[in-house]
Amino acid sequence: MLYQRSSQLFAEAEKVIPGGVNSPVRAFKSVGGTPIFVKEAKGAYLYDEDGNKLIDYINSWGPMILGHAYEPVVNAVIEKAKLGTSFGMPTEIETKIAELAVSMVPNIDKIRFVNSGTEACMSAIRLARGYTDREKIIKFKGCYHGHSDSFLISAGSGAVTFGSPNSPGVTSGTAKDTLLATYNDLANVESILDANKGEVAAIIVEPVAGNMGCVPPAKGFLEGLRALCDKHGTLLIFDEVMTGFRLAKGGAQELFGVNADIVTFGKVIGGGLPVGAFAARNEIMNYLAPIGPVYQAGTLSGNPLAMAAGLTMLQEINKDSELFARLEEKTAYLERGMRKVLNDNKVAYTINRVGSMISVFFDEREVVDFDTAGYGNNDTFKKFFHGLLAEGVYIAPSSYETWFITDALTYEDLDYTINAVNKIFAS
Ligand code: PLP
């Protein structure tokens, strides 16, 4: 495959955009090489500016669960756009998507829409702090909740890939209110809560971590967090930006049968347009302005195009009773196929998977937290990434990222991918 035009476009972009990209992981820093400039996408495939066709396992980092340019979503956006693209006034469609989301997700009464997952998580902790009248939060090393200051204390994903886990520009005053815990280690969380009695407003967690590769919660971990929060009067925030409407209609809360106090969303809920949201029961959500004291706002929040895309996406997911079973089957098929060829080729690896979130680490040791996720950040991953790319298969350009399986993938695509994995290691 040739990437001549992508290289030219990247050189031009670098002159006017820092690093040539608008989000660091896109720059391929951790795997090397030049980022691919995409021209269009349909279903499970990307078409780049050089005319290459790629099977896509990132899917815009999660939103495109039904495939790219999914017709009902595209049509809904086009029709809405004809009526005006932004009003800064209430619209009926905002209530419609809110009603649907509240009906699909357990344990929430009200939801507020924002423009990104970052905004959702940032607003959720402000709400938790306002509601509890406490200042500290606990986050887990390797979990990513967007790029707002309180979370860039030891962030995973983009920040780790980019090699600056503690970003300059975050003040020490902000950092002191974020306490870092180890994922899947309840004793560690308990000791932090004990050392900060009455001071911790919230624990925020990715119920399935997806920003240190895919790291499932150990049995009892989420239940344990729930119990610790109840004991300490601390709110439990599930960051379901990745898992929401992906692991089940009701997200991780439904899948694991554990209720959070506040839930945040992004990605799938916007159908590929910029949307985030946070939700909770009435007693917490009523703390928000304009009815409560905690301020939160947005010029483009509830934007009609974004709401049209999100509503259509949720409606499609809601009416398809087989969707999550199909995603599970497809991703399990891919997992089995890759395991077989990696075993046949005597490659040391670990595969973690929950539903349609999966990642491959090239080390035989178990990956359960941020430190162990680091085992997979090695040269074999780079070889794997570039080998797949040469075969027309696009996975995340970092071992700290999860693959997101789309329903648009066919079993032929999956077989093709498994064969491509075999080729890389057989050669
Ligand atoms: N939370 C999680 C779990 C995420 O994976 C991300 C982004 O990848 C975010 C929050 C931030 O969302 P956004 O990139 O839309 O700001």
UniProtKB/TrEMBL annotation:
<dbReference type="GO" id="GO:0030170">
    <property type="term" value="F:pyridoxal phosphate binding"/>
</dbReference>
<comment type="pathway">
    <text>Porphyrin-containing compound metabolism; protoporphyrin-IX biosynthesis; 5-aminolevulinate from L-glutamyl-tRNA(Glu): step 2/2.</text>
</comment>
<keyword id="KW-0663">Pyridoxal phosphate</keyword>
<dbReference type="InterPro" id="IPR015424">
    <property type="entry name" value="PyrdxlP-dep_Trfase"/>
</dbReference>
<keyword id="KW-0808">Transferase</keyword>
<dbReference type="InterPro" id="IPR015421">
    <property type="entry name" value="PyrdxlP-dep_Trfase_major"/>
</dbReference>
<keyword id="KW-0413">Isomerase</keyword>
<dbReference type="InterPro" id="IPR049704">
    <property type="entry name" value="Aminotrans_3_PPA_site"/>
</dbReference>
<dbReference type="GO" id="GO:0005737">
    <property type="term" value="C:cytoplasm"/>
</dbReference>
<keyword id="KW-0032">Aminotransferase</keyword>
<dbReference type="Pfam" id="PF00202">
    <property type="entry name" value="Aminotran_3"/>
</dbReference>
<feature type="modified residue" description="N6-(pyridoxal phosphate)lysine">
    <location>
        <position position="267"/>
    </location>
</feature>
<dbReference type="GO" id="GO:0008483">
    <property type="term" value="F:transaminase activity"/>
</dbReference>
<protein>
    <recommendedName>
        <fullName>Glutamate-1-semialdehyde 2,1-aminomutase</fullName>
        <ecNumber>5.4.3.8</ecNumber>
    </recommendedName>
</protein>
<dbReference type="InterPro" id="IPR004639">
    <property type="entry name" value="4pyrrol_synth_GluAld_NH2Trfase"/>
</dbReference>
<comment type="subunit">
    <text>Homodimer.</text>
</comment>
<keyword id="KW-0963">Cytoplasm</keyword>
<comment type="similarity">
    <text>Belongs to the class-III pyridoxal-phosphate-dependent aminotransferase family. HemL subfamily.</text>
</comment>
<keyword id="KW-0627">Porphyrin biosynthesis</keyword>
<dbReference type="InterPro" id="IPR005814">
    <property type="entry name" value="Aminotrans_3"/>
</dbReference>
<dbReference type="InterPro" id="IPR015422">
    <property type="entry name" value="PyrdxlP-dep_Trfase_small"/>
</dbReference>
<dbReference type="GO" id="GO:0042286">
    <property type="term" value="F:glutamate-1-semialdehyde 2,1-aminomutase activity"/>
</dbReference>
<dbReference type="GO" id="GO:0006782">
    <property type="term" value="P:protoporphyrinogen IX biosynthetic process"/>
</dbReference>
